Amino acid sequence: GAGVSQSPRYKVTKRGQDVALRCDPISGHVSLYWYRQALGQGPEFLTYFNYEAQQDKSGLPNDRFSAERPEGSISTLTIQRTEQRDSAMYRCASSQERWYEQYFGPGTRLTVT
Amino acid sequence: GDSVTQMEGPVTLSEEAFLTINCTYTATGYPSLFWYVQYPGEGLQLLLKATKADDKGSNKGFEATYRKETTSFHLEKGSVQVSDSAVYFCALNEGGSYIPTFGRGTSLIVHP
How much is the average pLDDT of B67-78? Predict the structure, then answer.
């Protein structure tokens, strides 16, 4: 497809389980961003990749969160030992030269029970 | 730190009404300002931007002017359509940063 895709769209998991969220950016976009968006709030930055290099991970809340983009295309955000407070919409975005022209995916709604 | 404050929603209007969504910001330097729009079931997309004081961003009939003296970037449209129903996010970034700070979003509902 032409846009950013994310999978799964919805994920329900039990507390303590690990989850992996996938992002497939627009072909040719070198930059990839992960955000977390709580209900009624704007997206909050988590981490950023330029090609395969993770340039900034200052927004990751703690060491249970990690992300990778091994071949500079698809990225995976992994949350280990999930907690209820991790429940949120997780959004991925990609961009080309102009970073602010980010194209966002539809998001993965994560619910931790 | 940087922050963006948007008016509470939802904003409910009739078709062809005039729209204003207020946005004010706090920043240490001279940020660039943006409006993003999120249509139902979709991701956010850039609507317009302004990079310096007194710049006016415009797109699809929407406009916003960068007002440094009032630290504001209000979104306006002269005549809204039902298809404009969406959530609108104001955002900023400081020069040299690629990390935007978003407001909490304002929902717009336009009735026929």
Answer: 96
